[in-house]
Write the structure tokens for this entry.
Amino acid sequence: MKPESIRNIALVGHSGAGKTSLGESCLHITGATNRLGNVDDGTSILDCSDEEKEKRQTQQASVFSLSVDGTHINVIDTPGLADFCGQAIPALAAVETAVLVVSAVAGIEVNTRKMFERARGYGVGVIIAINKIDADNVNVEELVGQLQESFGAQCLPVNLPADGGKSVIRCLGGSGTPDFGNLDEAHTAVVEAVVGADDDLMEKYLGGEVSDDEVRKFTAVSVTQGELVPIVFTSARNGTGVQELLSAVINYAASPINGFHRTLVDGENKTEVDPAGADFVGQVFKIGSDIKSNIKYAHIRVLSGTLTHDTSLHTVTEKKGLRPGQVYRMMGGEHSDVDGGVAGDIVALAKLDVHLGDVLYSGAGGTIDMPVLPKPMFALAIESKTRGDEDKIAAAFKRFAEEDPCFKLDRNAATNETVIHGIGDVHLRTYLHRLTTHYKAEVITHPPKIPYRETITGSATDVEYTHKKQTGGAGQFGRVIINVLANERGAGYEFVDKIFGGAIDQSFRPSVDKGVRAQMVEGVLAGYPIVDVKVELTDGKTHPVDSKDIAFQIAGRGAFREGFMKANPILLEPIVTIEVTAPVDNLGDLQGDMASRRGQPIGQEMLPGQMAVLKASVPLAEVADYHSRLSSITGGQGSYMMELSHYQQVPAMVQQKIIADHGKKAEAG
């Protein structure tokens, strides 16, 4: 196998567009499987887990391959639900081309737009497959117009549906009567898009000397550059256009040689990875587990050189060398042994201690950027339901986080809670269900506390505090005088020793700093961490016998508490930028709801298909329950994403309530 004869594609798009069904149809029509797998009846080999079969919904990326006319095609079937984008987006790191599957029935949906933008933003070409063209009452001509309006005039059909969606006709060299459009006009539009990718070819075209064969040589380049986004028409259900889709992949999708080349970064050095290079370079784009054995598999895109069982591998964090052992080719949930992987191929390794995004290499190494992932902002606080299950739960969540970069687990020091983060409620509930079924453990969940911060806007000078304790033995004594000042927002904490002379022994001055830091963690106003303050130690007193480290820690804490309360203390709350996609008819209700949540509008955008995007800046505390509210307003048709923007002062009335609630909880225990 040579890199020139390899094509790597990812099936991407919105949930329900038919990506998995299209993958199953490709496998069946090429003879890779002897029966057509069906998502609805649970016979799909690409939806491997019990959850996927039960819900008829892809949740994990699935890798498979097939052969067509001497071309080896690696395919990654990705989830279409936005909650599982942590499985879909990394797949772009392994391919030259994304096949954006669009339902002819549903049209352009939320994830259709997002995955197109992500693919082009990362640098891979796009082929659009309009699926379900044989469904009743579809208007594919109107849909093509919407695609061109949304993604550009470079979205052009390279074949056209005919016979009511029961067949397709090639625009290059085809004949027959299509359901819409004109073959000659479509042919001309494709040619002009392709020649635009090369100046010499454009000059020849203007001179009337370009043949179809010359055009075909440049199609992959034009697709990679975005000059052409081919549109093909399919019906996965009855196989219409599937063979033509595979032909389009061979003819229009770039090979690893003429496609998007990744850049290896080592410090200040940046080197384009040459597929013809001798040294092995590969990148982990997926971590998965065998359902039955729970063995960990690292899916590798080979970028240069050859990977065999005895290749000595290195990463930027593992310099000693790793031995890959057996090399595998995946087919959904199954795998087979192969001798190795050549440049451009996709293979898998078992039981290797590597992580998503890691670059493996045998010569010079570095890192390679992965596609940008959204920050998981939906969160649930958790605690073990059964005492003693903590280690089991931790192991499960560690595995989940390894396999899904949009699943996070952390311990929030500000709220003293263990919190899991994901893209949405469905995302986290899916993993909690997996925790129960696969790991036989359960957790109790509740909304996490909002991570407020405390700070000051004023100052307090010459704040004196003396800690004095007399016991039967040695006493404790420490006196400090400090200034508590507001620091610039985002500057953090600063401690300045301004004592001249020996008012406080040099050995005790760090103790004051230590005491202040301890109090900052606990907070003063409402129990939240303190940020952006400056403390100046100006004077104090040391006792020759009773002064010790703990005394000056306590004195530092006490002085800081008093100074903080005198320096106009305030609460800061996290502000997120939220982007809501919903039907146009719901826009007014959404705007009103957002205003009631103290949201500030940023802008809005109208989308094809009677959809709109509303952008706003809103306190995180106000959208903690937004998932259910949005579903209620839009009838389940809306979606949203949010990212932390900044912290800002809490309004006075809200601050009073937070402080009062903290006081009640403190009194209660």
